[in-house]
Amino acid sequence: MRWSGMQRGDNRFFKRKKVTVVGSGNVGATAAFLAAQKELADIVLLDVVEGVPQGKALDMFEASPIQDFNTNLHGTNDYADTAGSDLVIITAGIARKPGMSRDDLLSTNVKIVADVTQNIVRHSPDCILLVVTNPLDAMVYTASRVSGFPRSRVIGMAGVLDSARMRSFIADALDVSIGDVSAFVLGGHGDAMVPLARYSTVGGIPITELMSADQVTAIAERTAQGGAEIVKLLKTGSAFYAPAAAVVEMAEAILKDQNRIFPCAVLLEGEYGVNGYFLGVPCKLGGGGMEGVMELDLSAEESAALMRSLDGVKTLVSEVDAMGFF
Ligand SMILES: NC(=O)c1ccc[n+]([C@@H]2O[C@H](COP(=O)([O-])OP(=O)(O)OC[C@H]3O[C@@H](n4cnc5c(N)ncnc54)[C@H](O)[C@@H]3O)[C@@H](O)[C@H]2O)c1
Fold first, then answer.
1. What is the DSSP letter of 5?
2. pLDDT score recorded for residue 146
3. Which of 3, 52, 247, 252 has its CA 20 to 30 Å from the CA of residue 161?
4. Which pLDDT value is given to residue 9?
């Protein structure tokens, strides 16, 4: 039997999107697999370690007949294979071990993220960057400075994960469907993140009306320590299922032009009285990337908490600046 007509790669009316995931460790590989199962795009998985992205991509592809998805997956160590990516998820870097804070990862991961960004931008100058590597607020700043991309195309993943954690804890405490729970966590992706109780609802009702103040405080504290809770249990690394699901949800919103409202780490240009720093705030994700920041009227207490979180981000950014990369 022979086919006549178009070959793969020929001009065609509709093309699949291309997503590159840099770092094929726990978060990267899980994100690639989730995105593949959702058929969001063809996927390139890249890592510095030879064989690992190739092996994982092939293994995932071999799951496609069973999981019933049509996605091409390609593992590589060569940035040339990432050329023309529409969206790139950066997960490369080291993860936390017990006793380490996210900030302890700074000096190693700045070098990695700067190098990755440079290579990605060379081959995909029009892509949208979603940054996952920790310490998140400093890494998304690094990717922004190295790429020179507008703020619509450099977005950090933190708030979607932190809010998902908070939603899980609320649903568990009130024994209600996770689908009816929404939650909002603002600020940096550190211990000073700001879980906003009055914007966290069950069936539209603020949790402050459904729980005692002590319960709300306990959930907010558990959310802020959500990453450390998993690190302590795993002992050899940090969370990856929920982080991967979070970044894939952001990627989906962009690739399908969904105009979803998510808390993301974005470059503020005067919003919330902040200029020039990445901070977790509600924004719209759609086909244009980060399409706009939603400015909430925060109470004095919430505002003060956001500014405390900003102080942590500023410290990290000044450490990055002192390393002299830009
Ligand atoms: N933003 C968040 O909410 C969030 C959540 C979870 C994890 N993280 C962070 O994501 C990062 C990855 O976590 P993980 O659990 O997947 O770690 P991991 O160790 O399992 O995977 C990291 C991968 O990056 C690769 N890598 C290292 N240097 C590279 C380079 N220069 N180019 C390409 N690949 C390179 C490693 O070989 C490894 O495969 C960590 O920094 C972690 O702290 C962030």
1. S
2. 97
3. 52
4. 65
Q: Calculate the alpha carbon distances from 296 to 55, 260, 272, 287 in Å.
A: 46, 16, 8, 23
pLDDT computed for residue 35 by the predictor: 98
Pocket of ligand 1 contains residue 93 by CB under 6 Å: yes
How do residues 1-60 score in pLDDT, each as one tens digit? 887 877 766 677 888 999 999 999 999 999 999 999 999 999 999 999 999 999 999 999
Cα–ligand 1 centroid distance for 93 (angstroms): 4
CB 211 less than 6 A from any atom of ligand 1: no
Residue 36 · residue 69 · CB < 8 Å: yes
Contact between 5 and 28 (Cβ < 8 Å) = no
User: Tens digit of pLDDT for each residue in 268-316?
Assistant: 999 999 999 999 999 999 999 999 999 999 999 989 999 999 999 999 9
The tokens 């290579």 sit on which residue? 119
Q: Count H helices and E strands in the chain, helices first.
A: 9, 12
Least confident segment among 17-21, 81-85, 161-165, 297-301:
297-301
Chain centre distance of CA 280: 11
Nearest CA to ligand 1 atom 21: 25
Quick check: CB of 95 below 6 Å from ligand 1? yes
CB 113, CB 91: distance < 8 Å: no
Supply angle C-alpha 321, 244, 217, rounded to 5: 80
Q: Which long-range contacts (CB under 8 A, 24 or more apart) does 104-108 make?
A: 105/133, 105/134, 105/135, 106/135, 106/138, 106/316, 106/319, 106/320, 107/323
Find out whether the beta carbon of 238 lies less than 6 Å from any atom of ligand 1. Answer: yes
Specify whether the CB–CB gap between 20 and 43 falls below 8 A.
Answer: yes
Output the CA 139–ligand 1 centroid distance in Å: 12
